[in-house]
Amino acid sequence: MTKEQFEREFDYQILMNIANRMKKEEIIDSKDYRVINEFFLKKYKPPIGLFPI
């Protein structure tokens, strides 16, 4: 994994962690979470983020 790929993956995972917390705290719903996820997948193109851990 290149440094650039790592940075994209890291940024994506951090942002999705925040979105996941917001969903758990019912700040956003499942639909909002999916929209956020799709947006960040397109923006960051994370090499591993496509596979949920």
Task: Explain what you see.
The chain has 53 residues and is an all-alpha fold. It has one domain. It is built from two helices and no strands. The protein has helices at residues 3-24, 30-44. α1 (3-24) packs antiparallel against α2. The longest helix is centred in the N-terminal third of the chain and has 22 residues, at 3-24. The two termini are 17 Å apart. The mean pLDDT is 93.
Secondary-structure blueprint of this entry?
Blueprint: H1 3-24, H2 30-44
Helix pairs in contact: 1-2
Could you list some keywords that capture this structure?
53 residues
Structure summarized in a few sentences:
70% of the residues lie in helices and 0% in strands. The chain has helices spanning 3-24, 30-44. The mean pLDDT is 93.
Helix content: 55-70%
Tell me the overall shape.
elongated
Indicate the low-confidence ranges by residue numbers.
Answer: none
**How many whole angstroms does the radius of gyration measure?**
11 Å
Give the domain tally.
1
Main sheet overview: none
H and E order: HH
Give the number of helices.
2
Distance between the termini: 17 Å
Strand content: under 5%
- Judged by helices, strands and strand pairing, the structural class is mainly alpha
Number of strands: 0
* Average residue-wise pLDDT: 93
